[in-house]
Amino acid sequence: MLNKIPTTVITGFLGAGKTTLIRHLVNNAAGRKIALIINEFGDLGVDGDILKGCGDEACNEEDILELSNGCICCTVADDFIPTMQKLLERETRFDHIIIETSGLALPQPLVRAFKWPEIQTKVTVDGVITVVDGKAVTEGRFAHSIEAVDMQRASDENLDHETPLSELFEDQIACADMIIVNKSDLLTNDQADNLVDQLKQDSRDGVQVLKSERGVLSADIVLGQKMMAENDLENRHELHHHHHEDDSNHSSDDHDHDDFESFIIAMQEIQDVNIFTQKVVKVIKQHDILRLKGFVAVKGKPLRLTIQAVGPRVESYFDKAFGISEERATKIVVIGQKGMSRSKITEALIR
Protein backbone atom coordinates (compact mmCIF):
# COMPACT_ATOMS: atom_id res chain seq x y z
CA MET A 1 0.00 0.00 0.00
CA LEU A 2 3.11 2.20 0.17
CA ASN A 3 2.49 5.55 -1.59
CA LYS A 4 -0.87 4.40 -2.95
CA ILE A 5 -3.70 6.90 -2.65
CA PRO A 6 -6.54 5.43 -0.56
CA THR A 7 -9.88 5.43 -2.36
CA THR A 8 -13.27 4.97 -0.72
CA VAL A 9 -16.10 3.58 -2.83
CA ILE A 10 -19.55 4.70 -1.66
CA THR A 11 -22.47 2.74 -3.06
CA GLY A 12 -26.20 2.48 -2.41
CA PHE A 13 -29.50 3.09 -4.17
CA LEU A 14 -30.78 6.45 -5.38
CA GLY A 15 -31.99 8.44 -2.38
CA ALA A 16 -30.15 6.43 0.27
CA GLY A 17 -28.05 9.45 1.23
CA LYS A 18 -24.69 8.93 -0.51
CA THR A 19 -24.31 12.56 -1.54
CA THR A 20 -25.28 13.83 1.90
CA LEU A 21 -22.68 11.56 3.47
CA ILE A 22 -20.00 12.78 1.04
CA ARG A 23 -20.91 16.41 1.66
CA HIS A 24 -20.39 15.87 5.37
CA LEU A 25 -17.08 14.05 4.84
CA VAL A 26 -15.53 16.78 2.69
CA ASN A 27 -16.75 19.53 5.00
CA ASN A 28 -15.14 17.72 7.95
CA ALA A 29 -12.05 16.34 6.23
CA ALA A 30 -9.65 17.39 9.01
CA GLY A 31 -7.06 18.72 6.57
CA ARG A 32 -7.26 15.91 4.04
CA LYS A 33 -6.98 16.93 0.37
CA ILE A 34 -9.86 15.01 -1.23
CA ALA A 35 -10.82 14.37 -4.85
CA LEU A 36 -14.35 13.27 -5.74
CA ILE A 37 -15.52 11.12 -8.63
CA ILE A 38 -19.28 11.29 -8.97
CA ASN A 39 -21.11 8.78 -11.18
CA GLU A 40 -24.53 10.14 -12.10
CA PHE A 41 -25.96 10.50 -15.56
CA GLY A 42 -28.97 11.35 -17.70
CA ASP A 43 -31.17 14.14 -16.38
CA LEU A 44 -30.43 13.32 -12.76
CA GLY A 45 -27.12 15.15 -12.59
CA VAL A 46 -25.05 15.66 -9.48
CA ASP A 47 -26.57 17.10 -6.35
CA GLY A 48 -25.57 20.76 -6.72
CA ASP A 49 -25.21 21.14 -2.98
CA ILE A 50 -22.15 18.89 -2.97
CA LEU A 51 -20.31 21.53 -5.01
CA LYS A 52 -21.50 24.35 -2.78
CA GLY A 53 -20.68 22.40 0.35
CA CYS A 54 -17.18 21.38 -0.70
CA GLY A 55 -14.92 23.95 0.94
CA ASP A 56 -11.67 25.14 -0.61
CA GLU A 57 -9.60 23.56 2.14
CA ALA A 58 -10.91 20.07 1.38
CA CYS A 59 -11.41 20.23 -2.37
CA ASN A 60 -12.40 22.67 -5.06
CA GLU A 61 -14.51 22.40 -8.17
CA GLU A 62 -11.68 21.09 -10.36
CA ASP A 63 -11.20 18.23 -7.90
CA ILE A 64 -14.76 17.01 -8.47
CA LEU A 65 -15.03 14.83 -11.58
CA GLU A 66 -18.31 13.62 -13.04
CA LEU A 67 -18.77 10.34 -14.90
CA SER A 68 -21.95 10.90 -16.86
CA ASN A 69 -21.67 8.30 -19.61
CA GLY A 70 -23.53 5.61 -17.73
CA CYS A 71 -23.30 3.22 -14.80
CA ILE A 72 -19.70 3.12 -13.62
CA CYS A 73 -19.48 -0.67 -13.47
CA CYS A 74 -20.45 -0.86 -17.15
CA THR A 75 -18.04 1.81 -18.39
CA VAL A 76 -14.84 0.89 -16.52
CA ALA A 77 -12.56 0.79 -19.57
CA ASP A 78 -14.06 3.70 -21.48
CA ASP A 79 -14.78 6.12 -18.65
CA PHE A 80 -13.49 5.21 -15.20
CA ILE A 81 -9.90 4.18 -15.96
CA PRO A 82 -9.17 7.24 -18.18
CA THR A 83 -10.67 9.52 -15.51
CA MET A 84 -8.51 7.98 -12.80
CA GLN A 85 -5.43 8.32 -14.99
CA LYS A 86 -6.09 12.03 -15.55
CA LEU A 87 -6.60 12.52 -11.84
CA LEU A 88 -3.38 10.72 -10.96
CA GLU A 89 -1.39 12.71 -13.52
CA ARG A 90 -2.09 15.99 -11.75
CA GLU A 91 0.72 17.75 -9.92
CA THR A 92 -1.43 17.90 -6.81
CA ARG A 93 -1.26 14.73 -4.77
CA PHE A 94 -4.51 13.94 -3.07
CA ASP A 95 -4.70 12.41 0.40
CA HIS A 96 -7.88 10.54 -0.44
CA ILE A 97 -10.24 9.86 -3.35
CA ILE A 98 -13.96 9.28 -2.82
CA ILE A 99 -16.06 7.63 -5.53
CA GLU A 100 -19.84 7.92 -5.45
CA THR A 101 -21.27 5.19 -7.65
CA SER A 102 -24.55 5.24 -9.49
CA GLY A 103 -27.33 3.63 -7.48
CA LEU A 104 -27.43 0.83 -10.06
CA ALA A 105 -23.71 0.09 -9.99
CA LEU A 106 -22.40 -3.32 -9.01
CA PRO A 107 -19.49 -2.56 -6.65
CA GLN A 108 -17.44 -5.66 -7.47
CA PRO A 109 -16.48 -4.73 -11.07
CA LEU A 110 -15.37 -1.31 -9.87
CA VAL A 111 -13.21 -2.80 -7.11
CA ARG A 112 -11.80 -5.26 -9.64
CA ALA A 113 -10.78 -2.33 -11.87
CA PHE A 114 -8.21 -1.28 -9.27
CA LYS A 115 -6.15 -4.27 -10.41
CA TRP A 116 -5.84 -2.81 -13.92
CA PRO A 117 -2.15 -2.14 -14.77
CA GLU A 118 -2.85 1.51 -15.56
CA ILE A 119 -3.70 2.37 -11.94
CA GLN A 120 -2.88 -0.58 -9.67
CA THR A 121 0.46 0.81 -8.46
CA LYS A 122 -0.99 4.22 -7.61
CA VAL A 123 -4.32 3.69 -5.85
CA THR A 124 -5.96 1.18 -3.53
CA VAL A 125 -9.53 0.64 -2.32
CA ASP A 126 -9.45 1.87 1.27
CA GLY A 127 -12.96 0.56 1.84
CA VAL A 128 -16.37 -0.03 0.28
CA ILE A 129 -19.20 1.79 2.04
CA THR A 130 -22.80 0.76 1.36
CA VAL A 131 -25.41 3.33 2.33
CA VAL A 132 -28.84 1.90 3.10
CA ASP A 133 -32.14 3.76 3.27
CA GLY A 134 -33.16 2.40 6.66
CA LYS A 135 -36.83 3.31 6.39
CA ALA A 136 -37.22 1.92 2.87
CA VAL A 137 -35.56 -1.41 3.71
CA THR A 138 -37.59 -1.77 6.92
CA GLU A 139 -40.75 -1.28 4.85
CA GLY A 140 -39.73 -4.04 2.44
CA ARG A 141 -38.35 -1.78 -0.29
CA PHE A 142 -34.77 -1.02 -1.24
CA ALA A 143 -35.12 2.62 -2.27
CA HIS A 144 -37.29 5.55 -1.26
CA SER A 145 -38.75 5.69 -4.78
CA ILE A 146 -38.72 2.58 -6.95
CA GLU A 147 -40.08 4.72 -9.79
CA ALA A 148 -37.05 7.03 -9.60
CA VAL A 149 -34.70 4.04 -9.74
CA ASP A 150 -36.56 2.67 -12.76
CA MET A 151 -36.21 6.07 -14.47
CA GLN A 152 -32.51 6.01 -13.68
CA ARG A 153 -32.21 2.56 -15.23
CA ALA A 154 -34.07 3.67 -18.37
CA SER A 155 -31.86 6.74 -18.80
CA ASP A 156 -28.64 4.72 -19.05
CA GLU A 157 -28.16 3.39 -22.57
CA ASN A 158 -24.89 1.69 -21.55
CA LEU A 159 -26.34 -0.35 -18.70
CA ASP A 160 -25.47 -3.97 -19.44
CA HIS A 161 -27.08 -5.70 -16.46
CA GLU A 162 -30.81 -5.99 -15.82
CA THR A 163 -30.41 -6.79 -12.17
CA PRO A 164 -33.44 -7.08 -9.87
CA LEU A 165 -33.11 -4.59 -7.03
CA SER A 166 -33.16 -7.35 -4.42
CA GLU A 167 -30.13 -9.04 -6.01
CA LEU A 168 -28.28 -5.75 -6.51
CA PHE A 169 -28.89 -4.93 -2.85
CA GLU A 170 -27.41 -8.29 -1.83
CA ASP A 171 -24.31 -7.63 -3.95
CA GLN A 172 -23.85 -4.19 -2.39
CA ILE A 173 -24.02 -5.79 1.06
CA ALA A 174 -21.67 -8.62 0.07
CA CYS A 175 -18.98 -6.18 -1.08
CA ALA A 176 -19.25 -3.74 1.83
CA ASP A 177 -16.59 -3.13 4.47
CA MET A 178 -18.99 -0.82 6.28
CA ILE A 179 -22.78 -0.54 6.03
CA ILE A 180 -24.44 2.73 7.01
CA VAL A 181 -28.11 2.57 7.93
CA ASN A 182 -29.09 6.12 7.01
CA LYS A 183 -32.30 7.92 7.98
CA SER A 184 -32.31 5.99 11.23
CA ASP A 185 -34.15 8.89 12.83
CA LEU A 186 -37.22 7.81 10.82
CA LEU A 187 -37.20 4.42 12.58
CA THR A 188 -38.07 3.37 16.08
CA ASN A 189 -35.16 2.18 18.20
CA ASP A 190 -36.33 -1.42 17.86
CA GLN A 191 -36.66 -1.13 14.07
CA ALA A 192 -33.19 0.36 13.73
CA ASP A 193 -31.59 -2.22 16.02
CA ASN A 194 -33.33 -5.12 14.26
CA LEU A 195 -32.16 -3.86 10.86
CA VAL A 196 -28.59 -3.48 12.11
CA ASP A 197 -28.66 -7.03 13.48
CA GLN A 198 -30.07 -8.40 10.22
CA LEU A 199 -27.45 -6.63 8.11
CA LYS A 200 -24.68 -7.94 10.37
CA GLN A 201 -25.97 -11.47 9.74
CA ASP A 202 -26.18 -10.88 5.98
CA SER A 203 -22.69 -9.39 5.63
CA ARG A 204 -19.18 -10.77 6.02
CA ASP A 205 -17.63 -11.26 9.45
CA GLY A 206 -16.10 -8.05 10.76
CA VAL A 207 -18.21 -5.69 8.63
CA GLN A 208 -19.33 -2.72 10.71
CA VAL A 209 -22.98 -1.69 10.55
CA LEU A 210 -23.63 1.84 11.81
CA LYS A 211 -26.71 3.99 12.17
CA SER A 212 -26.72 7.50 10.74
CA GLU A 213 -29.01 10.50 10.53
CA ARG A 214 -28.60 12.63 7.40
CA GLY A 215 -25.27 11.03 6.58
CA VAL A 216 -23.49 12.51 9.59
CA LEU A 217 -20.57 10.27 10.50
CA SER A 218 -17.01 11.19 11.43
CA ALA A 219 -14.46 11.07 8.61
CA ASP A 220 -12.16 9.28 11.05
CA ILE A 221 -14.65 6.41 11.10
CA VAL A 222 -15.50 6.23 7.39
CA LEU A 223 -12.09 6.99 5.87
CA GLY A 224 -8.77 5.29 6.58
CA GLN A 225 -9.98 1.69 6.80
CA LYS A 226 -6.99 0.33 4.84
CA MET A 227 -8.89 -2.69 3.54
CA MET A 228 -7.10 -2.95 0.15
CA ALA A 229 -10.35 -4.47 -1.11
CA GLU A 230 -8.99 -5.15 -4.60
CA ASN A 231 -6.83 -7.89 -3.03
CA ASP A 232 -9.82 -9.47 -1.31
CA LEU A 233 -12.21 -10.03 -4.21
CA GLU A 234 -12.75 -13.70 -3.44
CA ASN A 235 -14.48 -12.84 -0.17
CA ARG A 236 -16.71 -10.18 -1.70
CA HIS A 237 -17.79 -11.95 -4.88
CA GLU A 238 -21.01 -11.18 -6.72
CA LEU A 239 -23.72 -13.38 -5.32
CA HIS A 240 -25.57 -13.46 -8.63
CA HIS A 241 -22.68 -13.16 -11.13
CA HIS A 242 -24.08 -10.37 -13.26
CA HIS A 243 -22.31 -9.63 -16.43
CA HIS A 244 -29.08 12.19 -8.58
CA GLU A 245 -29.38 11.80 -5.21
CA ASP A 246 -32.38 13.84 -3.89
CA ASP A 247 -32.24 14.43 -0.16
CA SER A 248 -34.55 17.44 -0.26
CA ASN A 249 -36.53 16.08 2.68
CA HIS A 250 -33.39 16.08 4.84
CA SER A 251 -31.61 19.39 5.01
CA SER A 252 -27.87 19.35 5.76
CA ASP A 253 -26.84 20.26 9.29
CA ASP A 254 -23.36 21.20 10.48
CA HIS A 255 -23.63 19.43 13.80
CA ASP A 256 -21.60 16.41 14.86
CA HIS A 257 -23.41 13.15 15.52
CA ASP A 258 -24.14 12.60 19.20
CA ASP A 259 -24.10 8.80 18.91
CA PHE A 260 -20.30 8.62 18.79
CA GLU A 261 -17.54 9.75 21.08
CA SER A 262 -13.78 9.45 21.42
CA PHE A 263 -11.21 9.72 24.16
CA ILE A 264 -7.44 9.36 24.65
CA ILE A 265 -5.70 6.83 26.85
CA ALA A 266 -2.24 7.89 28.09
CA MET A 267 0.05 5.10 29.27
CA GLN A 268 3.68 4.34 30.07
CA GLU A 269 5.85 1.96 28.05
CA ILE A 270 4.46 -1.50 27.36
CA GLN A 271 6.48 -4.67 27.88
CA ASP A 272 5.34 -6.96 25.07
CA VAL A 273 3.77 -6.07 21.70
CA ASN A 274 1.93 -9.39 21.26
CA ILE A 275 0.37 -9.27 24.71
CA PHE A 276 -0.72 -5.67 24.20
CA THR A 277 -2.20 -6.48 20.77
CA GLN A 278 -4.20 -9.33 22.31
CA LYS A 279 -5.55 -6.89 24.89
CA VAL A 280 -6.59 -4.52 22.11
CA VAL A 281 -8.44 -7.28 20.22
CA LYS A 282 -10.22 -8.38 23.38
CA VAL A 283 -11.29 -4.90 24.47
CA ILE A 284 -12.57 -4.07 20.98
CA LYS A 285 -14.83 -7.13 21.00
CA GLN A 286 -16.06 -6.58 24.55
CA HIS A 287 -16.88 -2.89 24.12
CA ASP A 288 -17.84 -2.72 20.41
CA ILE A 289 -15.12 -0.16 19.65
CA LEU A 290 -15.20 1.19 16.09
CA ARG A 291 -11.70 2.55 15.71
CA LEU A 292 -8.56 2.49 17.84
CA LYS A 293 -5.30 4.14 16.83
CA GLY A 294 -2.22 5.70 18.32
CA PHE A 295 1.46 5.44 19.14
CA VAL A 296 2.99 3.03 21.63
CA ALA A 297 6.32 3.09 23.44
CA VAL A 298 7.75 -0.42 23.78
CA LYS A 299 10.36 -1.11 26.46
CA GLY A 300 13.78 -1.63 24.91
CA LYS A 301 12.72 -0.46 21.43
CA PRO A 302 14.06 2.86 20.07
CA LEU A 303 11.23 3.12 17.53
CA ARG A 304 7.66 3.98 18.38
CA LEU A 305 4.94 1.45 17.50
CA THR A 306 2.04 2.69 15.40
CA ILE A 307 -1.16 0.76 16.03
CA GLN A 308 -4.48 0.97 14.18
CA ALA A 309 -7.60 -1.11 14.58
CA VAL A 310 -10.74 -1.15 12.46
CA GLY A 311 -13.30 -3.40 14.09
CA PRO A 312 -11.56 -6.68 15.02
CA ARG A 313 -8.65 -6.16 12.60
CA VAL A 314 -5.50 -4.78 14.27
CA GLU A 315 -2.44 -3.52 12.39
CA SER A 316 0.82 -2.41 14.01
CA TYR A 317 4.30 -1.48 12.84
CA PHE A 318 7.36 0.45 14.04
CA ASP A 319 7.63 3.73 12.14
CA LYS A 320 10.25 6.10 13.55
CA ALA A 321 12.48 6.79 16.54
CA PHE A 322 11.36 8.90 19.45
CA GLY A 323 12.93 12.35 19.45
CA ILE A 324 15.65 13.23 21.96
CA SER A 325 13.33 15.47 23.96
CA GLU A 326 10.19 13.42 23.24
CA GLU A 327 8.60 11.56 26.11
CA ARG A 328 8.51 7.79 25.65
CA ALA A 329 4.81 7.49 26.30
CA THR A 330 1.84 5.67 24.83
CA LYS A 331 -1.21 7.55 23.59
CA ILE A 332 -4.22 5.69 22.18
CA VAL A 333 -7.34 7.27 20.65
CA VAL A 334 -10.53 5.24 21.08
CA ILE A 335 -13.63 5.92 18.95
CA GLY A 336 -16.90 4.18 19.67
CA GLN A 337 -20.59 4.41 20.39
CA LYS A 338 -21.70 6.99 22.92
CA GLY A 339 -21.89 5.51 26.42
CA MET A 340 -18.92 3.17 26.14
CA SER A 341 -17.15 2.69 29.46
CA ARG A 342 -13.97 4.76 29.36
CA SER A 343 -12.83 3.49 32.76
CA LYS A 344 -13.23 -0.20 31.89
CA ILE A 345 -11.56 0.22 28.48
CA THR A 346 -8.66 2.13 30.03
CA GLU A 347 -8.25 -0.38 32.83
CA ALA A 348 -8.29 -3.32 30.40
CA LEU A 349 -5.47 -1.81 28.30
CA ILE A 350 -3.29 -0.56 31.17
CA ARG A 351 -3.36 -3.51 33.53
Percent in strands: 15-25%
Helical stretch tally: 11
Could you please say which CATH topology of the largest domain applies here? Rossmann fold
Strand order of the largest sheet: 3-2-4-1-5-6-7
| Helicity range | 25-40%
How many strands, what sense, and barrel or not for the largest sheet? 7 strands, parallel
Specify the CATH homologous superfamily of the largest domain: P-loop containing nucleotide triphosphate hydrolases
Q: Kindly name the structural category.
A: alpha/beta
* Mean pLDDT rating: 79
Reading off the top of the CATH hierarchy, the class of the largest domain is best stated as Alpha Beta
Question: What's the count of strands?
Answer: 12
Q: What is the CA-CA span between the terminal residues?
A: 34 Å
Based on CA atoms alone, the radius of gyration comes out at 21 Å
- Silhouette: globular
In words, what does this structure look like?
Strand 2 (34-38), helix 2 (48-52) and strand 3 (64-66) form a beta-alpha-beta unit. This protein has helices at 18-27, 48-52, 76-88, 107-113, 134-138, 146-155, 165-175, 189-202, 219-222, 273-287, 342-350; strands at residues 5-11, 34-38, 64-66, 96-100, 123-133, 178-182, 208-211, 260-267, 289-296, 303-310, 313-321, 330-337. The chain has 351 residues and is of the alpha/beta class. The chain is built from eleven helices and twelve strands. It has two domains: 5-236, 3-Layer(aba) Sandwich (Rossmann fold), CATH 3.40.50; 260-350, Hypothetical Protein Yjia, Chain: A,domain 2, CATH 3.30.1220. Mean pLDDT is 79; it is low at 41-53 and 243-258. The two termini are 34 Å apart.
